Amino acid sequence: MIAKNLRCMAAMLLAGNLALATPGSLWANDKNEGKGNNNGGMTTTTPIKYLVVIFQENVSFDHYFATYPVATNPKTEIQFNGKANTPTVNGLTQGLIQNNPNGPGFSPFRLDPSQNYTCDQNHDYTNEQAAFDSGLMDQFPENTAQLCNQTTGTPPVLVYPTLEPLGTSIVMGYFDGNTVTGLWNYAQNFAMNDNSFGTNFGPSTPGALNVISGMTGNVDPATEVGVAGAVIDNVDYGDADAFYDDCASPTSHFGMKPNINNVGNIGDLLTAKGITWGWFQGGFTPSAVVGGIAQCNTQTPRLDGTLETAYSSHHNPFMYFKSTANPHHTMQASIAEIGNAGPANHEYDLSFFQQAALNGNLPAVSYLKAVRAQDGHPGNSSPLDEQDFIINTINFLESLPEWNQMAVIIAWDDSDGWYDHVIGPIVNQSNSPTVDALTQAKTCGSGVNALADIQARCGYGPRLPFLVISPFAKQNFVDHSLIDQSSVVRFIEDNWGLPRIGEGSFDVVAGSIENMFDFDAKRPAPAVFLDPLTGQVVAVEKEKK
């Protein structure tokens, strides 16, 4: 009965028919206590039976958390006041703000909520390394900045009127708790890591591949079409689309080979053990099917009304692997198929995630990808659009009966080239003569490669935000453990008793995220409901007796 009531509450939340101020009394006596409990015949090494990975776009840690937990709080903006016991993060000190190594005129500066729509910065593999300048972190305007002087329409209208005068200093901009209010409030109530990095340097596709496989090597030469600037020596370092995808660019795409054990990604490992899983992406449902080929032209609006194409092929990592692809975007035969083998092959439209959950069919492992209007990517989205998606999703998840056994990870695919003052350890060296440039021309690190001697995978790359929202998350906690995108893969492997992908995958060296959890806490972290538009707390789960 409790589970049924919670599903009804989640459905009402999804439909906007329930105020968020009345959730607390519905949680009680529904917690599955202890470790190693059974979930659909599968045991786990922690109490977490359901993992949801919300994978967003293009944010460096400093771009969102530079001054956390201190916000400027102008009277006309959404207010944020951190808790008195909030731990500090490795953010921007006054020395780095006022006397930055990027030189005069290039000090980090605050972007306000009215500037939430920004231009996309240069976040290519080589440019990011050059910006890092052997760890001096002093060449961002020269290497990753993009001028915000785009115009559209007839007569031309400047898209970024308040940003255009900033020139290349735009790359030094950061938001605070008056704009990314929701993420700061999640950090206040759950766990955040300030020592998390992109597995490699570079843009979206390497990050997407790493969060499901820890591997950007093993590109299949037979599938490479127009990949100059994206693939070199059968290694992806750029943004060409997925070969096994009707909605990919016909002139620039590639596919991945599995390793010698026929494993390409975490989906292969989950499938082999019979564990339910799915990738859910906005816009995945075809806008049309022409001659048996799916078309992906659906558009969705941003908060400002601008229409954006919903689906992006190079944001969908499972489509690069034949074993986990759904080339024609075929719909599942039924809701009951979701998470299991069937026509959709674990690839679904984002809307079906909520339908599956409401029908008691939540997969054990779910990756969620927003439509482009809400994925946070500069140029097509914004922090406020992103906030709307993240908060609505987490409010929904917190209303499910499975919440008591769930963890939600919020992670990002790359830094977009935005300034961050921290260089991570170079755990995997590379000396590709064409694309590496960190320590000197043609070199990233010593050149002694640690993982299968695969070049053009230098990392760790830029520092990225990483949050865990869960009843088991440590509360108002900042973790300093060294982790990267493939730490998500490692957690899934460890929690569900899966082998390592190995054979060059970063999962063999990835740090653990388990320090962000307290599985023995006497008082689990209460669910916290936020307002999707303001990011402010509107309700907190009542303490259980």
Explain this structure to me?
- The chain is α/β, with parallel strands linked by helices and 545 residues long.
- It has one domain (2-20, 27-540): Alkaline Phosphatase, subunit A.
- The chain is 18% helix and 15% strand.
- It contains eleven helices and 26 strands.
- It has helices at 2-15, 61-65, 94-98, 125-132, 140-143, 181-189, 204-213, 266-272, 351-358, 383-398, 486-495; strands spanning 38-39, 42-43, 50-56, 109-110, 151-152, 157-158, 173-174, 191-193, 196-197, 231-232, 235-236, 241-242, 253-254, 277-281, 288-290, 293-295, 299-301, 307-309, 347-349, 365-369, 406-412, 466-469, 477-479, 483-484, 528-530, 537-540.
- The strands form ten sheets. Strands 19-14-20-3-21-22-8-23 form an eight-stranded mixed beta sheet, sandwiched between helices. Strands 1-2 form a two-stranded antiparallel ribbon.
- The protein is globular and about 55 Å long.
- Mean pLDDT is 92; it is low at 15-41.
Radius of gyration: 22 Å
Q: CATH homologous superfamily?
A: Alkaline Phosphatase, subunit A
How many strands, which pairing sense, and closed or not: the largest β-sheet? 8 strands, mixed
**Averaged pLDDT:** 92
| Percent strand | 5-15%
Total domain modules: 1
Shape from CA axes? Answer: globular
Note the main attributes of this structure:
alpha/beta; Alkaline Phosphatase, subunit A; two-stranded antiparallel ribbon; 15% strand
Summarize the structure.
By secondary structure, the chain is of the alpha/beta class. 18% of the residues lie in helices and 15% in strands.
